Amino acid sequence: MVRGRICRLLVRDVRFPTSLGGHGSDAMHTDPDYSAAYVVLETDAEDGLKGYGLTFTLGKGTEVVVCAVNALAHHVLNKDLRDIVGDFRGFYRQLTSDGQLRWIGPEKGVVHLATAALLNAVWDLWAKQEGKPLWKLLVDMDPRTLLSCIDFRYITDVLTEEEAYEILQKGQVGKKERGQMLMHGYPAYTTSCAWLGYSDDTLKQLCTEALKDGWTRFKVKVGADLQDDIRRCRLIRNMIGPEKTLMMDANQRWDVPEAVEWMSKLAEFKPLWIEEPTSPDDILGHAAISEALVPLGIGVATGEQCHNRVIFKQLLQAKALQFLQIDSCRLGSVNENLSVLLMAKKFEIPVCPHAGGVGLCELVQHLIIFDFISISASLKNRMCEYVNHLHEHFRYPVVIKKASYMPPKDAGYSTEMKEESVKKHQYPHGEVWKKLLAAQEN
Length: 442
Ligand SMILES: C[C@H](O)[C@@H](O)CC(=O)C(=O)O
Ligand SMILES: [Mg+2]
Description:
Blueprint: E1 6-15, E2 35-43, E3 50-57, H1 62-72, H2 81-86, H3 88-96, H4 109-130, H5 134-140, H6 143-147, H7 161-171, H8 175-181, E4 186-190, H9 200-212, E5 217-221, H10 226-240, E6 245-249, H11 256-266, E7 271-275, H12 283-293, E8 299-302, H13 309-317, E9 323-324, H14 333-347, H15 360-376, E10 384-386, E11 400-401, E12 404-405, H16 419-425, H17 431-441
Parallel strand pairs: 4-10, 5-6, 6-7, 7-8, 8-9
Antiparallel strand pairs: 1-2, 2-3, 4-12, 11-12
The structure holds the ligand C[C@H](O)[C@@H](O)CC(=O)C(=O)O and magnesium ion.
Ligand LWAPGFLV binds next to loops.
Keywords: Lyase, Magnesium, Metal-binding
EC number: 4.2.1.68
Organism: Leptonychotes weddellii (Weddell seal)
């Protein structure tokens, strides 16, 4: 049973110096320090359970997201959890429609990242109180309750609540069998071999290890220098052979014609998709790129920097993407992701979540497992991203077996970080940063 009034909200700026090793680097983000605005919610209930939530950032700017979380805090503090989840759509709307704060969004940018961190903590708390991993909480929820968590404003022209209900009703058939199928895990791909800042030797070594570990799907960063891309893509394709799957990610580096031209030159390496070829806001640009590249056998994937459900709606309407990448920390938490999963189902576009970042694998595995069991009912052309960084800082880290995500068993949203890790990496006074900042001064 849901219980307790939220009586304390704490938000911390946690940063990991991943840029030092080039981990996470791409054509636009050359020095990312994987970071999070990390929220902890406490209630006055006797169970002592806390809700943990985060949103992903790249180092600088995390303090801005922390400010935005504090600015939104009054919407959460002193609320009864029963009232929140009893009208989750209303609560989502309250957060995203704050008459003053929405001016610096709306439902986009810093304020939406802050919303995601807060709502992720609420979902974690709810799942913990129910004693279920988040994916199971969603799978067990009756369709009407699930729909009551979604704000359909701005998307009813493509998906009404009744249509969404029909999708969920259809999804009830075979749910049990699909749940059993996941004993073998949800298929994953790795991005960890080929960050842009890695040398060819590192790429080769990591690729050899990944092949030994049974990985069959790989993503390589491209977009800064064509000759480098040709060399690196040849190297990785030669190592993995013609049958395994290769994806490419340009992280918004190109103009539209440039994307088409560049990818035509990389087509010989048979990429399944090109990810974020251009600005994430350019829906018609993505459509033009799709139109040019699909005949070459290359799909367009995007989503990790799509602000909200409206952008996804238009990408789908415009046939601008062939693979849709939800993100657990950029959209307004589970609530908004549910609406995108349902729209993707309606348009029959496979969802392949983004997870390159700290904590993103931990969170998004719940959403994609739920998607498979209750919405998509298919594994065709579907896989979830995996990166092998920083899991050791989480209390309930992802479990990968045979290149697949094993369904989490612990209650909650797998969002809780180890307190010791948080303390050490808190910016700027944690042990790790004190040392690094002192070294920079000398
Ligand atoms: C800056 C991040 O590491 C980004 O490169 C992640 C990404 O694009 C992905 O995982 O995909
Ligand atoms: Mg990407």
